[in-house]
Amino acid sequence: MVQENRVPVGMKHYPAEFKADTVALYRSRPGATVRSVAGDLGADTETPRNWIRAADGRRPGVHSAPPTTAQAGGGDARAEPTAARKRVRELEEERDILRKAARHFATEARW
Q1: pLDDT 10s digit of each residue in the chain, 111 long?
Q2: Secondary structure of the chain as H, E, C letters
Q3: Which of 9, 40, 7, 4 is nearest to 22 (CA)?
Q4: Nearest 5°: phi and psi at 42?
Q5: Domain boundaries, the chain
Q6: What angle do CA 99, 101, 106 make, to 5 degrees?
Q7: Out of 3.40.50.150, 1.10.10.60, 3.90.1300.10, 3.90.930.12, which CATH number does the structure's domain 12-61 have?
Q8: d(CA 99, CA 41)
Q9: What local confidence, expressed as pLDDT, does residue 21 receive?
Q10: Cα–Cα distance for residue pair 53/47, rounded to 1 Å
Q11: Maximum alpha-carbon separation in the chain
Q12: CA-to-CA distance for 15 and 17, rounded, in angstroms?
């Protein structure tokens, strides 16, 4: 039996320029979520999510790790969170050392 290529009911076709504009809109709004962009467009949430994945070089519908900095071409954007996490760890270590020193000197002062 030969299957015909049919478009499911309710499925819309969007021009490539519209898809690119949607991805650009999502990326230009810092607090934007895929859900909010989809709501603005009147589209299903998965529709712009798939366009964003495709723009990132990932297959739409596949849940995988984000592309590496070499693939993304924007090294600074991906390096920032990593650097921030490293800095947080360093500050936590410093805080712990200072707490231990404060406890040590507090007990020493009681003698």
Answers
A1: 555 555 455 567 778 888 888 888 888 887 888 888 888 877 788 888 888 888 888 776 555 555 554 444 555 677 888 888 999 999 999 998 988 888 888 887 766
A2: CCCCCCCCCCCCCCCHHHHHHHHHHHHHCCCCCHHHHHHHHCCCCHHHHHHHHHHCCCCCCCCCCCCCHHHHCCHHHHHHHHHHHHHHHHHHHHHHHHHHHHHHHHHHHCC
A3: 40
A4: 75, 30
A5: 12-61, 74-111
A6: 95
A7: 1.10.10.60
A8: 52
A9: 84
A10: 10
A11: 92
A12: 5
Structure-token pair, residue 40? 């603005």
Token pair of 86, please?
């490293």
